[in-house]
Amino acid sequence: MSAIEKDALTGTDTTGHEWDGLKELNTPLPKWWLYVFFATIVFAAVYCVFYPALPLPGATGTTGWTARGAIAGQVAEERAKQEPMLARLRAATPAQIAADPALRAYALAGGRGVFNINCAGCHGAGGQGAAGGFPSLADDDWIWGGSLAAIQTTIQHGIRNAEDEEARVSMMPRFLADGVLTAAQVNDVAEHVLSLGNRATDAAAAGRGAALYAENCVACHGEAGQGNRELGAPRLTDQVWLYGGDKASVVRSISYARGGVMPPWGGRLDPAMVNMLTVYVHALGGGE
Ligand code: HEC
Ligand code: HEC
């Protein structure tokens, strides 16, 4: 420890600390820095009074402001902005929405969002469908119908579900499992089904299958395999298959039936959303 003195070179006081002849200067913090530092302390204290800062339950500060509440307010504000449009979409039929450019544009944009959240899991992001019975909604091959009204009914009530009494229903018999046909007969009728798309490999079996088809299948799938929308029976003459068009898949469909299920959306979604979805799906490419 040596005495506090002025450093000759800089004119600053020393602290009195000295190491092997090196003396430590006592350079004070700049005034502006100190004042800013004190100001931040004052600011923090004031902030703690007005805003939530203490990690205690219910410590919200005297203003009552919270980040959660602010977001809720913004969401409510956005909802309120959309409400007039949603009210119009609720009141209009899908046909009216499709005919009105402003409503249609809104429905297509909104419908895409609602579709991606609720439908894409089964039908694919662009409605392209998925293996295992989830039909493409973007083509012009419709099981239950591709008019706006038919699409709306499908979305509103769903298909073969237990939740909605007005769900679309129709059950193909389980021809092998329920003993209606033998395994050999199923093979023959499957060959006939393949022959409808010119893909049979066994002409004799396909010939025998034709009679079985006339007896057991025509009522739903039609004489030429053209399908029946009233019954949700798919067309068997094209290359579009819910469950696969190879022989093994067709045999399986006939033997055990499939009974695909789609949930109803009427009770889950705002009617405006159902209308938006209807217009969106109709516009995916195959609407009639
Ligand atoms: C859990 C899976 C699942 C979800 C989620 C789902 N669907 Fe489906 N959807 C199906 C199945 C399965 C079928 C075909 C049923 C059959 O065999 O007839 C179908 C059929 C349809 C059809 C009829 C297609 C036709 O060719 O007639 C439309 C339209 C449709 N869905 C729209 C939607 C929309 C819109 C949503 C979202 C709100 C949705 N689906 C959500 C499973 C689903
Ligand atoms: C009561 C009406 C009904 C009868 C009768 C019926 N089907 Fe079906 N069939 C359906 C329905 C509905 C589907 C849609 C699949 C499902 O059950 O989800 C279907 C689906 C199929 C499929 C699968 C199509 C695909 O795209 O993957 C094949 C193949 C088929 N039927 C063949 C037959 C044959 C062959 C017979 C006669 C032996 C027959 N069906 C009798 C209603 C019927």
Task: Tell me the layout of helices and strands.
Blueprint (H helix, E strand, L loop, with lengths): L13 E6 L2 E4 L5 H20 L16 H25 L2 H6 L1 H18 L1 H4 L24 H10 L25 H14 L6 H14 L1 H4 L25 H10 L14 H12 L6
Antiparallel strand pairs: 1-2
Helix pairs in contact: 2-11, 4-11, 6-11, 7-8, 7-10
Bound molecules: heme C (HEC) (2 copies).
Describe the structure using short key phrases.
about 290 residues, mainly alpha, Cytochrome Bc1 Complex, Chain D, domain 2, 3 domains, two-stranded antiparallel sheet, 2 strands, binds heme C
Major sheet description: 2 strands, antiparallel
CATH topology of the largest domain: Cytochrome Bc1 Complex, Chain D, domain 2
The CATH C-level class name of the largest domain? Mainly Alpha
Dominant shape: elongated
Order of helices and strands: EEHHHHHHHHHHH
How many structural units, i.e. domains? 3
Average pLDDT confidence is 93
> What structural category arises from helix and sheet content?
mainly alpha
Low-confidence stretches: none
**Major beta sheet, strand line-up:** 1-2
Strand content: under 5%
Number of extended strands? 2
Relative helix content: 40-55%
For the record, what is the CATH homologous superfamily label of the largest domain? Cytochrome c-like domain
CATH A-level architecture of the largest domain: Orthogonal Bundle
The radius of gyration is 37 Å
How far the N terminus sits from the C terminus, by CA atoms, comes to 98 Å
Helix run count? 11
Cofactors, ions and other ligands in the entry: heme C
